[in-house]
Amino acid sequence: MQVCECLVLIGGDIGNSVTKQEVTSAEIAVLRAIHGNDAVRSIVIKDQIKVDHDKERERLALIYKDEIVMNLFGKFGDLPETLEAARVESDMIVGDETKKSKTKKAAEAVEPTVQSSGE
Question: How far, in Å, CA of 78 to CA of 73, rounded?
Fold first, then answer.
């Protein structure tokens, strides 16, 4: 499941916002249901982790109320693993650090060394 950092406009109010860290893609879906689709923005994907869906569902229900989680995802089944699966518009996502780190490591591994000719 993707883990992100995001800005949440409480109740959709730009003057009342909070930055949340270590937010799963499923939690972003819950936050959007509570505060509005446009209220969760400036999303940066930080990591991809394995999550037990039942435990994540319980965690979300404790924080945001079981009724909200059940209405959004149903009582059983998988939660959205990605922002795309959570139907988050791409313009709300400002970065993906999981791609940068893989690209950077790959680029570092293939960069040739340059030798000077001594001139």
Answer: 8
